[in-house]
């Protein structure tokens, strides 16, 4: 038993003999075995017991047992009491969720207070098998079939290599007693149905079913880690080329992992993969995703923009990153698309800076006749995201003077007779 647990700890780099660890001690067989095994292997531990006051005298019995055990083993003992029912009612969560939130929050608080490297909890192989089966029944992706992880942040699980029977056998060899939570004997929740009814039936088909499911979960965990490494290549990327993803085999999986960081769910990803160019999807996290000619683009959802009135020359705030300088000066012609110069005598104040609207037209510089701005932007192969962000400057007669950053209107062009220009110069803050 010691060697098996020691090898498991080494394989997943869970513990260090130079560090201090908290052990979550309920008094049940699993947590008692965890405490004894770690103590026997020479790890520095403190025990922590949570009394949730859900089972009357039985809850207090468990606390007394844990305190007595730690006194016998000379292991520092911490305890905490929770009014779990009140917490559940106040926060509108189930009693099970309330107990989970309370204990893990306190674990982390105490870990920080005493300088512990982690919190060891006593999940074992049967727990991970039950988790795999529950997730399979409910419907899950690959990650849900990897079971309970050996390490999750500061939570460590050194006993995942052992079955419940092995744990009980170890305690018998030690002559060590433990307490039993009566609620675990009732098949009144899904996990207990799996434990008390489903697994015994599966063991009739194959007595080694638990070992096989655990081994499969470990294999899937390795596969998941490989996929995560590939998916991490696309963290914080705002654009995916779908053809480039084909070399990884499963583009939909990578798209899901990529889109998930922006708040999109699996059902949306399936729709995204089947969507035509131009379709936009929105996430509750405040992002929009655009399907655009074999690419997926994501950006924060566009917030409404209040048109900016420019009554005279000056410098005006476009947003928190950009200012726009509007100034009359001796005639010159800008050759930079980011800066516009127009004949000042042809422009009537007040001017307005706003986003392009449906039906906007202009006579592009160097062209005859008017053209819809939407067509002009399409000709430039601008994406829907770029189009919806595009700004224009209009004059008092609502004529488009400048399609910002692209081109000016021919009607306001600088000519040989121009003596003064109105310049538009965007400036980064």
Tell me what the structure shows.
With 429 residues, this protein is an alpha+beta fold. β18 and β19 (400-403) form a beta hairpin. α2 (29-40) packs across α7, α6 (125-138) packs across α8 and α6 packs across α9 (209-231). Strands 3-2-1-4-6-5 form a 6-stranded mixed sheet, sandwiched between helices. Strands 11-15-18-19-20 form a 5-stranded antiparallel sheet, with no helix packed on it. 26% of the residues are buried. Helices cover 39% and strands 21% of the residues.
Topology:
Elements: H1 2-11, E1 20-24, H2 29-40, E2 44-51, H3 57-73, E3 77-81, H4 84-91, H5 95-114, E4 118-120, H6 125-138, E5 151-152, E6 155-156, H7 164-174, H8 190-205, H9 209-231, E7 239-241, H10 242-245, H11 251-260, H12 266-274, E8 280-282, E9 287-292, E10 295-300, E11 308-310, E12 314-317, E13 322-330, E14 340-343, E15 351-355, E16 361-362, E17 371-372, H13 373-379, H14 384-389, E18 391-394, E19 400-403, E20 407-408, E21 420-428
Parallel strand pairs: 1-2, 1-4, 2-3, 4-6
Antiparallel strand pairs: 5-6, 7-10, 8-9, 9-10, 11-15, 12-13, 13-21, 14-21, 15-18, 16-17, 18-19, 19-20
Helix pairs in contact: 2-7, 4-5, 6-8, 6-9, 9-11, 11-12
